[in-house]
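Run log, item B.
One chain of 155 residues. Sequence copied directly from the ordering sheet:
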Amino acid sequence: QAGPDPTTPWRARLLQNPQDVEALLALAHVQLDQQRLDEAESIYRQVLSLQPKNVEAITHMGTVLLRRGQALAALREYDAALALKPDYIHALWDKATLLQQVMEDYPAAIRTWEAFEKAVGPDSQDAKTAQRFISEAREAMQNASPVEKAFQKKS
């Protein structure tokens, strides 16, 4: 690991105020980026103990679970975040990606990408990316075998 420790400024802030939610989230994100899932989860839980409805922490708990291979648990976290804030673009993105790439639930992925597109605005670059994923999902549905089509989720 070359260069300065990216957690240092956040740890310094937390020494001043251990309940600094912004610093806690930033520290947890660094841990997540470094694949330190246990540390990230612990910090996200700390945020949720301070702010139980923090959609950023809830969404990232989903990402921790997904990286552990717990797709259904991750989906529950994304849905919990979206229940609190239906247009939270990070949760919409993560949920749509999970549905499309991991669960291969293309109809649900398309609906989630469409909600994401609405949240970011139709002219944004992110909306164009969502459109590309929607096209890929539709193509995957068309290319599914008859057996796959018969067992495709009806969500």
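Observations after the first pass:
- The mean pLDDT is 93.
- The CA atoms of residues 84 and 136 lie 29 Å apart.
Flagged for discussion on Thursday.
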